[in-house]
Amino acid sequence: MKKLVALLSLLLLVGSVPASADTLAEIRARLAASKPADYPTQPIEFVVVYPAGGGMDTTARLLAKYVEKYAGHRVIVVNKTGGAGFIGHTYLATQAKADGYTVGILANGAWTDAMLKAKGKWSHKNFEAVAFVNYAPVTWIASTEGRFKDKTLKDVVATIKSEPGTVKIAVVPSISFEFLAEQVETLAGGKVVKVPFQGGAPGVTALLGGHVDVATGFLSEYRGHLDAGKVKVLAAAAEQRAPDMPQVPTFNETLDAKHLVWSAWRFAAVPRGVPTARKGYLEAVLAAALRDPELQAEYQKTGSIVDNPYANAAAVDAAIEKSATLERQFFTTTGRLPK
Amino acid sequence: MEVLRELATGFGVILTPANLYYCFLGSLVGTLVGVLPGIGPLAALSLLLPFTFTLPPVPSLVMLAAIFYGAMYGGSTTSILVNIPGEAASVVTCLDGHEMAKQGRAGAALGIAAIGSFVAGTVGNLGLTVFSPALVAIALRFGPPEYFAVMILGFVVTLYMIGGSPLKAMVMLATGVFVSVVGMDIVNGAERFTFGSVNLSGGFDLVAVVMGLFGVSEILLNVEALARGEVFSRKIRGLLPTFRDWLDSWAAILRGTAIGFGFGVLPGGGPVTASFLSYAVERRLSRRPERFGHGAIEGVAGPEAANNAAVAGSMIPLLSLGLPSNAVTALLLGALVIHGVQPGPMLMTQHPDIFWGVIASLYVGNVMLLVLNLPLISLWVQLLRIPYRILFPSVLLLTVIGTYSINHNIFDVWVMIGFGLSGYVLRKLGYELAPLVLAMVLGPLLEQTLRQSLIMSTGNPAIFLTRPIAAALVLLAAALVAVLVLRQRRLGLAGADATQHPTEGSP
Amino acid sequence: MTVRRVDLAVDAFWVLLGLAISAHAAALGLWAPSGPGGGFVPLLAGAVIAAGGAGLLLSRARPAPGVPFWSARVAALRVLAVLAGLVAIAVLMPVLGFLLTAIPTMAFLLTVIERQRWPWVVGLAIGSSVGLYWLFDRILEMALPKGPFGF
User: Fold this and answer.
1) Which of A100, A311, B217, B350 gives 20 to 30 Å between its CA and that of C61?
2) By C-alpha distance, which of A251, A255, A283, A284 is closest to A270?
3) Which of B188, B400, B405 is facing C142, going by the closest CB pair?
4) Is residue C68 part of a domain?
């Protein structure tokens, strides 16, 4: 009976209208009331599969801070790095206990790894989403002193076509940065030189030094340079133009396509099989934290978009499934996966 | 000068009781955590980062920078006392530092490490203050071909540090390169030598390898050598460096500072590469190189100065470009971002209090660390009195914890054990292990920049000679190689140590 | 087991290791469209290792024959004991947690070099293990492995 009451109050809480009018105390009280019995008795672990200090890590730490604020118990961020996230993803998919004490703060790399690297041992279905966190679209930037200083994406694409093999683009191999460049190559009808770097930031530095013509990255990686007027954004791989950067076109509109959508899409998930009451509590706590205007402001400052179109965790799962299917198509078309 | 005026405002920011307190706290905690083997600045910062969330930007950044520096200061302590590196940048300090400890001169070694670190940190900060804009402009001109050339040059210079059998050193270097190759290929994302293992797909972690090669092997060697009831004769002869020590070290400290600062500005390696380079340079320039490996104080002074100067140097790309040159500065970058501060060209103008406050805190932090560390020397030296048979199990457990803490993955502990056993056997056979670590750090950088450069030039190797900076560095490296080869010809190829009776030699 | 024999064995090991690495590296692709492929550097590394091993096998300089690898049998046993302790930690820590693994292992290691009185050993083992646990798991919040009892 107690469990049923807890579950019902959780459902009410999760489905409730964004509670900007509720005070912190009220939210805290509601969350405390809906806590399942004997949980949590130890700190909850947020597992981040990328190194400390990076964008993913920062996202997770900020989220942990606000979850602590609302839930009142400790959250520890643990970095399980290696293999560009593969080790952490495998751990969460196959080894982590589904007891509600381990939450993965993940990005789309989770399902990319499942398709390209897991070799059938696990898939993204080993995770159950508990919250959508934020996303940041992949962008192309040019230096304001370099080869494309007065040009737009259309001009760059034209150059790729007319002078194939001369445009140098900084990418990070095996992730969306590289995939985007491949798609542009196909549409432009010419090859680009994809210079590999370990992250977006080294690519941006190479751009500033004139060693590459275009760099790929997220806004958070070059915001300082953008403000200083050293770089400009050519285009974003999003479905619509960003409201705070309305002059930046999307790849889709410039190249008249639908599939050039790549972003760092961040979400929280637990290993499949967590008891319903605990999972519901986690969803409620995360939802409360993510609605906090301060947290949203912090995320926006780093260039991430916090608009959450997903009504509940099931919707997030559905969105993941949809993205994964689209990506799988891309991988089979480009020969990375057998048909 | 305007810079001095701005620096003065920075001091105004830092010299408040609250900020001073956090600077001190960071220095203390950083030192203590840095002393723990295997737990270097990166682990210390990751652990303590959450504590800074509740603080406003200036105190939290001041505290984090102090932790960074503190960990570098602390890392040399275990290297000197128990021959186990506090972090990868202190590996070289083990070579002569521990020998000095065995001769009863641990105090002098610790002292010169602290003072050398202080000088290097302060001078490095001056460079950071005054030369930042110029250095940033130069650093931007370094693309992959230039980085490759610099790494080649650095690699060639460190060849000078290798004594003993050149064949064995060659094998160690190549093994180090191979160890670094295992895992993901950074250029094309493919997996190399992982044989389907999930754990190997991340490669071998440097800390796990270093803890095994130097930490575990050291314990094994000592446990073997101790007869029953024997205590290491560690008479303590004086707590501070003597005048003679100063005479020997001052030039090494200055050279180490220059090398460290230069390499700190460049990405990758940073303090680790700088410490190796400094050791090699000191050995090369010394009039009595045979003293190295047997307690030459320059072998401690130079590298310790280098790794602290590298910290100052790595602040430049971090603060001015928002580009982290290594994992630690990447974490500092994350901390900055969490506090809403965007590093980059605008940092100085948008948040002058933060920029200059942090720089001023580096000066203050260095002073605090010196004041903290000198008295601590007598405390650490007391630890040496504990009989080894009682001390070593705790040290062993510390290395396990330090290794485990990297990724919370027990696989790293297995790696440590494997390298520990190998290191033990190799040391008994007279192999030097430091070149393996050096190759493990430099190898991936060399490979990555080589392949990046060739991709940029679509396969044309002339890129290294058509770009002026790269060409100059490559030619310099080639000249040094020629000198080295000629020198080796005269000494014979198999090396002089093959008949040496192997004991628990230093790595 | 003499030093000389171990030295020879290690030299032979280098040759085998180097050849194995080079063989596997060749399969990774030596040259990509624009520059070295993934196998280029490992192939070089493997070749150098094998060449170095061969050079060492052929060289005249070698440790003197007859020098035993371990000065006394007890020395070898001690080394093995420490290794066994490490392996025990690696195997048991994920299952039993840090504390339950550290205490017995530490007690064992404290007697490796010299037998001590057991109350002293047990006390020290418990004291240091708990101290380390408290420092790392509670103060530094480093999340050491926990066993079945929650600690």
Assistant:
1) B217
2) A283
3) B405
4) no
What contacts A122, CB < 8 A, 6 or more positions away? A90, A93, A94, A114
**Measured between alpha carbons, how far is C137 from B402 in angstroms, rounded to an integer?**
12
Token pair in block for residue A252:
């889709």
Residues in A closer than 8 angstroms to B186, CB to CB, are 173, 196, 198
* Locus of tokens 């989770």: A110
- Is C3–B394 a contact, with Cβ atoms under 8 angstroms apart? no
Topology alike, domains A2-136+264-333 and A139-255: yes
One pLDDT digit (tens) per residue for chain B, 507 residues: 677 888 888 888 888 888 889 899 889 888 888 888 877 788 788 777 777 777 888 888 888 888 888 888 888 888 898 888 888 888 999 989 998 888 888 888 988 998 899 999 899 988 888 888 888 888 888 889 998 998 888 888 888 777 778 889 899 999 999 999 998 888 887 889 988 888 888 889 888 999 999 989 999 998 888 755 455 555 666 677 888 888 889 999 999 999 999 888 887 668 888 999 999 999 888 888 888 888 889 999 999 999 999 988 988 888 888 888 888 888 888 888 777 787 777 787 788 888 888 888 888 888 888 888 888 877 877 777 788 888 889 989 999 998 898 888 899 999 999 999 999 999 999 898 988 998 998 888 889 999 999 999 888 888 888 888 899 989 988 988 888 788 777 766 554 443 333 333 334
pTM: 0.86
Q: Of the residues C27, C58, C89, which one is the last residue of a structural domain?
A: C58
Q: Has residue C147 been placed in a domain?
A: no
What is the length of chain C?
Answer: 151
Binding-face residues of C in 120-139 toward B, CB within 8 A:
124-125, 128-129, 132, 136
List CB contacts (< 8 A) between C88 and chain B.
none
Is B192 an 8 Å CB contact of chain C?
A: yes
Structural domain for C104, as ranges: 73-139
Q: Rounded to whole angstroms, how far apart are CA atoms A72 and C80?
A: 49
In CATH, the number for domain A139-255 is: 3.40.190.10
Question: Taking CB atoms and an 8 Å cutoff, what residues of chain A touch C141?
Answer: 43, 76
State whether C52 and C92 are in the same domain: no
C79 and C133 both lie in a single domain: yes
| Domain shared by C135 and C78, yes or no | yes
Q: Considering only CB atoms, which chain A residues are within 8 Å of B42?
A: 52
Domain count, chain C: 2
Q: Is the domain covering A2-136+264-333 a CATH 3.40.190.10 domain?
A: no
Inspect the interface and report whether the beta carbons of C143 and A45 lie closer than 8 Å.
Answer: yes
Does some domain include residue C65?
no
**Domain's final residue, options C35, C58, C81:** C58
Helices B57-82, B17-35: axis angle to 10 degrees equals 30
The domains of chain A are located at 2-136+264-333, 139-255
Ramachandran angles phi, psi of A106, nearest 5°? -120, 170
How far, in Å, are B248, B255, B263, B278 from residue B302 at the CA level?
A: 11, 7, 14, 6
Residues β-bridged to residue A296:
none
Contact A86 B202 (CB under 8 A): yes
Residues C52 and C83 in one domain: no
| Count of CB pairs separated by less than 8 Å, A with C | 8
Nearest CA in chain A to B409: A80
CA distance B191 to B350: 43
Selection from B97, B108, B40, B109 nearest residue B68 by Cα:
B40
Cβ–Cβ below 8 Å for C143 and A78: yes
The reply to whether C120 and C96 lie within a common domain is yes
Query: CA angle A76-A82-A84, nearest 5°?
Result: 105
C80/C42 same-domain check: no
**Is the residue at C63 inside a domain?**
no
Domain spans, chain B: 2-229+241-491
